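Example record for the data management plan.
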Amino acid sequence: MQQSSRLKSNPSVRGALPLRDIGDSVSYGIFGKVNEMASRGVKVYPLAIGEPSFSTPRAIIAKAMESMVAGDTHYVSSYGIPEVRAAIRDKVRRRNRINAEISNTIFMSTKLAVYASIVAATDGAGEVLIPNPGYFYSQPVVLSGAEPVRYNLAGDYSLDVDDVRKRTTKKTKAIILNTPSNPTGKMFSRRELKALLDFSRERKIYLISDESYEDLVYEKEHVSVGSLEREPALVISVFSLSKSFAMTGWRAGYVVADQTVIGLLDRFIEHTLSCFPPFIQLASAYALRSGGSSTRRFREELRGRRALMERMMKGIPRLEFGRAEGAFYVFPKYDAKIGSLEFSRGLLDSKGVAVLPGSIFGPAGEKHLRISFAAPRETIREGMGLLGEFVGGLPH
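Corresponding structural encoding:
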């Protein structure tokens, strides 16, 4: 029986925050177990976490410290300080070719930005299309009061606009896309993005574009769908400094969108967080203007780690995988009569190797694993060797 693309939700909590209906995060559960095992002296090989092993560049840290010492520790605008908004505008014009003004920008942490953008696009009702397989967008959609509906990616994980059309109804308020993709590492082409944008214009549906991995691309050119508009209109572009500058703990990101959407996001921040720390914003402005060399260094190291991961995977029978075009994940399919959640738990318990089960990324992710090559090379080498041992012992 074909599984419904609509995810289960509780209509009795529509318009509320259904926290009791949102299950615990499988990924954070795995991360917690890895830390607990390590604290007991167990040797672990963390290949699950979506975080580069690099440290934030010292120059970025120094800017934050200088800012704090100078007294930048007070309330600021909920839109973001002028310095970071100007840096965002200049960066997206130069790097992403998005024709933005300062009024089209707001500084906010990326994961919160995805949720706030969903709230702004839907007003807490209707449906939001999310990729299958894809990142964990269903939970923020449900929290917003809207209903998540999965659209399938093509067999090679490229964008299938025909399937998007098929899943779209009169209730559809927004479509979420993610390129480069977590978990597949796939990058969407300009042609695919244009076709999706043309469709969204036809139906007057927002596109929420998560571009967290924009700088971690290896052969192809990253295309921002927002660059295909004359000025921000239906595209809500969400960016992050976490991966590009190894700033995951800083919670630094930003959104570029139509002024009306930006005003709604400002209202969201004003009535929840008030504002983000000004010293983090000043350091982020510096990173956006002057941090390109560190990003290039990170990317080249990740390119080498990807090559190592691919060599190791080729030596493991019963694994089928495609090359990661961007981000820092491989998403192999395995041949064994075991679900991916059971697989990942057994691998961690018996070998100390942490990966994420593909099923948490949607029904299309079952019988897959998400494995990160952002870990140090020795962790990749030893962890993948143990993964090969584990796969070899599984029943066919």
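Summary line stored alongside the record: The domain at 11-55+294-392 is CATH 3.90.1150.10 (Aspartate Aminotransferase, domain 1).
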